[in-house]
Amino acid sequence: MRVPLSWLREYVDLPATETGRDVQTRLVSAGLEVEAVEQLGAGLKGPLVVGKVLTIEELEGFKKPIRFCTVDVGTANGTGEPQEIVCGARNFAVGDKVVVVLPGAVLPGDFAISARKTYGRTSHGMICSSDELDMGDDGTHGIIVLSPEHEVGSDAIALLELVDEVLDIAVTPDRGYCLSLRGIARETAIAYGLPLRDPALIDVPAPSASGYPAKVSDPMGCDRLTLRTVTGLSPEAQSPIWMRRRLQKAGMRPISLAVDITNYVMLEIGQPLHAYDRSRLEGPIGVRRAQPGERITTLDDTERALDPQDLVITDDRGPIGLAGVMGGAHTEIADGGTDGDSGEAHGTTDVVIEAAHFDAISIARTARRHKLSSEASKRFERGSDPQATAAAAQRTVDLLVLLGGGSAEAGVTEVIAPSAPHTISMPAGHPDRVAGVTYGRETVVRRLQEIGCDVYGQDELVVTVPSWRPDLDAPNDLAEEVIRLEGYENLPSTLPTPPAGRGLTERQRLHRRVGRALAGAGYVEALSYPFIGDAVLDQLGLPADDARRRTVKLVNPLSDEEPALRTTLLPGLLGALRRNDGRGSHDLALFETGPVFRPTGDETVPVRLPVDRRPTDEQIAALDAALPRQPRRAAVVLAGAREQAGWWGKGRPAGWADAVEAARTIAREAGAELAVRADQHEPWHPGRCAALFATVDGTRTLVGHAGELHPRVVKALGLPERTSAAEVDLDLLERAGAGPLRAPRISTFPVATQDVALVVARDVPAADVELALREGAGPLLEGIRLFDVFTGEQLGADSKSLAYALRFRAADRTLTVDEASAARDAAVALAAERTGAVLRGA
Q1: What confidence category does residue 263 fall into, taking pLDDT thresholds of 50, 70 and 90?
Q2: Is residue 225, in this structure, part of any structural domain at all?
């Protein structure tokens, strides 16, 4: 809502020294969102005067029509002689009054005016258009032609109200009354403690049977309809400058007198109106729901198929307007003008003014259904003032009579559905409890009366809500009004005191530890939406019977292409990797932790929980039973260089081993040990995929996979070559862990290192050999590391050599060589027994 400060001053006697910035500060403090204060005419400098065109000479020989004019500007040029001006516009004639800028002036945009030679003549100034004066859209974009009564040489800056301040206010959906000067003026008056001149407080004649006939068939959709008729309008009457300028400043384009007046009253009072050409109406004006198959051509020249839920305005021929949204083209007000042959004036002379109050939800749905948002629908869907219809219609009639020379018919039509005022009961101390501040009953009552409420009672207040505030529905709404008018900035800052003994759960601690560990390893967290579609599951190459294809479908998804909840974290992470790679970041390591959603098929129908009391434990358990399993996962994806090349040495590309190491990093934070096995599992490469196992509740359990993605998956998803990924189940790892992490004990005794090289069959996993060595070495083993894998002709085609470094240490003594050797031999013996390993060289 754009509010010119000069217009606002008509309703509130603001101090003359108050600027737009000052008003902005007050309104922001009252809870309105004033986004900007626009300075109109900033930098504008005269002389800018009214001139009369004396002569026009058409200059020939140029690519476009050029006119050499003499213009009477009175004594504004200091000589009284006609001003010679070259102009290319053609929408003015000899005798017209125009706006002239003289040499020495500065127009908006720091455009200085001086005498200059052009087209073979010297132009002493300019004849101005609305664009050159930054006046806004006037529908013509040509030279401003003024009405004849303006005096030659008078100041055009004041005449055109070029210098002003405009407040640009973002009106929230709950404050529809602020989509009017009346509403903003009320808030301004309250903020300054000044009286308000309410433009809706005007005398309105009583309804009579002689008014234009009306029929409301849907009183729920239209509970109030007012019709007024004005006849004998002059077809040549135009909107005065002051009205056109106010409309332009408010962001609307002047069109014609009748339309401009309805727009002006809408901006002033907040009540949308519509003017019908009476000569084009047939029969009574009605309000009803559209019938199947009906169509209408609206004022934007678009033919629309009507929905049975649409509220329409009708006459005997059918729909003539979309109620509360846009009128129909058939009854449009005709512009004034003269007939080219006879010279007679033509245009609308008799109009019927319609002011109504429509159901907000119905209008909002119609506007969205037809993708047709209008200034009227914006106000109706936020809730207009039902009691302002008669005043708005009377204000429109008065302006038409005053400016258009018409006569108001005595008949007044009003159709009103009975309704009671909305009242709210509230303890007088309720705002105090909400804000944590003591306001007192007198302050509460005064603030509620300032916004238009009638308040009765002592300890228990009975508040009658004003008709223009449909957003006030409960005691908390009233408390909010008191708090905002008293000033949010006056509320004390207090921090809630948390109950003692509550901190992060072990599950939450693990989640944070995993995030910190991966970040420390060079991964960047990437959060993604938990939605997927079948297309990405196809791209991942998942077989038809894969459990990850069993998804939970959303009833109302954000996107029809992703209607299901994710069963794996990889689609979101791989999508983030693809986007970043496409934007030039080629060395990527991303991770995400969060739930996936796995339906079991045993979910029950969700129960409806009560809202008037706490649900019982049985009801909560029943609701939980209706949900799918939601195991927590952690996943990483890598592409590009894992180690950059530089003066320190060669770089290294990311590979499947890095994905496996990321999984080990996650497991270490849970205090779990991973066993790695070769596997084939989509979407990983069949030869570079590792299955990850951990001991969960005494059972060896698959907890995830890691490795390089399948080339077909890489191609289908548009990923960099050799992209790798890992995904593990955090819940299973937490159960596999040894409980809360303990700080490691540092031994003061030296370590004994023993290396062993074992020859095993090629198909024996290194993890099996490591597990056997670990168990066979016993409690003295501190650590084990595979540092070499060798294959060659001397070993045979079916064998490989695995070299391990074993670290032994005792917590209470220095180990002897015999003790370390005995532990090593025991480890080798168990590895030989379980895997067939043989000491290399033995």
Answers
A1: very high
A2: yes
